[in-house]
Design a protein that fits this description.
Blueprint (H helix, E strand, L loop, with lengths): L13 E7 L5 H12 L4 E3 L8 E8 L6 H5 L3 E9 L1 E3 L8 E4 L6 H7 L5 E5 L8 E2 L2 E2 H6 L9 E14 L2 E8 L5 H12 L3 E11 L2 E2 L4 E2 H6 L2 H6 L13 E3 L2 H8 L19 E5 L8 E9 L2 E7 L24 H14 L3
Parallel strand pairs: 1-14, 3-12, 15-16
Antiparallel strand pairs: 1-3, 2-3, 4-11, 4-12, 5-6, 7-10, 8-9, 10-11, 12-13, 16-17, 17-18
C-alpha cells in the first residue's frame, strides 16, 4: 500500500462519481480515491454516513471550487426503516432505547406519508455533525450532555413505498438539501405510533447524476492513475445549469486578471447576480476552456470565482461533458436496490 506521506501529489481536476460502500466514512472513501489519483486537492459534494452506500460525488482540483453548488442539489434515496425499534442515533449504529409492537398496515402508512411531503419541520439527530457553540452535536451526545436541537425546514418532494415486509418498510425519497433521512425515519415511526430507525440507506441520485454512472471503489483501485484520470468528468459538469458566456482571447485574458468587462452582450439570458460559467481561449488558435464563474450586473460581467493556472485545461472527456443531463436512476433499478437493502439491512 502506498505511504500517503510519500505520495507525489499532483494537480488533477475533475469529478468522479463513486458508489461508496457501507462501512467507510465519506472522508475515508475520498482519501482512497484521492491517493489513487495522486490529486493534490480534493473534496466531496454531500456526506454519506458510514451506514449508507451509494452515490458520492468526489471533486478534485478546480472542481472543489464549485462543490458547494452540488451540496445544495436535490437528492434521491432508497431507505429501509426498521419499525418498532428506536435507537439513540436514529439509525442501526445506535443503541436500542425502546421497542414497540408494530401493527402498521399499508393503508395506515399511505395515510401518514403525505404529512412528510412538502416543506416540513425536522429536528436533526442529536448524533450529527451540526455545530452548537463550535462543537458538533455528537460531541455533546457522547459526553451525555443534553443540548437543545433547533428544528429547521427541509423540502421533501416525494416519498414512495417500495416494499412493506413484516416490520421493514422500504421507501424511495426525493428531497432537498439538508434533509436527514435518519430523522425522517424516526419521525415517520412516531407518526405510525411504533417508532422506527433507519436500518439501511442508498443514495441513488444527486443533482442530475445517478448511481448507475458511478464506479465502485474496487473499480477505482483496479485502475492505474492515468486511466482513472481519463474517467473523470470535466469540472464544468457542476455548472451545466448556469448560463454560458464565451469570450475572445483579449477579453479572456482580462477576465482571468480580475477585470470587470463592459460592452459585451450576454450569450445566454442571466438574472442579475446569477452565476455565469465563462469560457475563453488561453492563446490564439486554442480551444475555449472554462475560466471560472462571473455575474452580470448592469451590463458588466464581473469575475466571481476564477480558476488558477494549473486548473486551466482543455476538456478531455467531451463525450461525457453533458453527463449531468442524464436521467435519474431507473425505477427497475430502484426496486432492485430496495430488495438488496431489505436483505442486507441490520436487524
Amino acid at each position: 500500500m502506498m505511504n500517503s506521506s510519500k505520495t507525489p501529489w499532483e494537480a488533477v481536476s475533475g469529478v468522479l462519481l463513486l458508489n461508496k460502500p457501507r462501512g467507510l466514512t465519506s472522508q475515508q472513501a475520498l482519501f482512497r480515491v484521492r491517493r489513487r489519483l495522486r490529486a493534490a486537492k480534493a473534496g466531496h459534494g454531500g456526506t454519506l454516513d458510514p451506514l449508507a452506500d451509494g452515490l458520492l460525488m468526489l471533486c478534485f482540483g478546480a472542481a472543489t471550487k464549485f462543490a458547494q453548488r452540488h451540496l445544495e442539489a436535490d437528492k434521491r434515496y432508497v431507505a429501509v426503516l426498521q419499525l418498532g425499534v428506536r435507537t439513540t442515533t436514529d439509525d442501526a449504529e445506535g443503541e436500542i432505547v425502546e421497542r414497540r409492537a408494530v401493527q402498521s398496515s399499508r393503508a395506515q402508512i399511505d395515510a401518514v406519508l403525505p404529512r412528510f411531503i412538502g416543506a416540513i419541520t425536522q429536528a436533526p439527530p442529536v448524533y450529527s455533525a451540526l455545530k452548537r457553540d463550535g462543537k458538533p452535536l455528537y460531541a455533546y451526545a457522547r459526553a451525555g450532555q443534553a443540548v437543545e436541537v433547533t428544528a429547521r425546514t427541509v423540502q421533501i418532494h416525494a416519498i414512495d413505498v417500495l416494499a412493506l415486509q413484516d416490520d421493514r418498510l422500504t421507501l424511495a425519497v426525493h428531497c432537498g438539501k439538508g434533509t436527514y433521512i435518519r430523522a425522517l425515519a424516526r419521525d415517520i415511526g412516531e407518526a405510525l405510533g411504533c417508532g422506527a430507525h433507519l436500518a439501511a440507506l442508498t443514495r441513488t441520485a444527486s443533482g442530475g447524476f445517478s448511481l448507475e454512472q458511478a464506479l465502485t471503489l474496487d473499480e477505482v483501485e483496479a485502475l492505474a492513475p492515468a486511466d482513472l484520470r481519463e474517467r473523470l468528468l470535466p469540472t464544468d459538469v457542476l455548472l451545466q445549469s448556469s448560463p454560458r458566456q464565451n469570450l475572445d482571447l483579449a477579453s479572456a485574458q482580462r477576465f482571468l486578471h480580475g477585470a470587470r468587462l463592459s460592452g459585451l452582450s450576454p450569450d445566454q439570458p442571466a438574472a442579475p447576480g446569477e452565476d455565469v460559467r465563462v469560457y475563453g481561449p488561453l492563446a490564439a488558435g486554442e480551444p475555449a476552456v472554462l475560466l471560472g464563474v462571473g455575474t452580470w450586473e448592469a451590463g458588466v460581467l464581473s469575475p466571481r470565482r476564477l480558476l488558477c493556472l494549473d486548473e486551466l485545461a482543455p476538456v478531455k472527456n467531451a463525450a461525457i461533458k453533458n453527463a449531468a443531463t442524464q436521467p435519474p436512476i431507473s425505477q427497475p433499478r430502484i426496486e432492485s436496490l430496495a430488495e438488496s437493502l431489505h436483505q442486507d439491512a441490520t436487524p
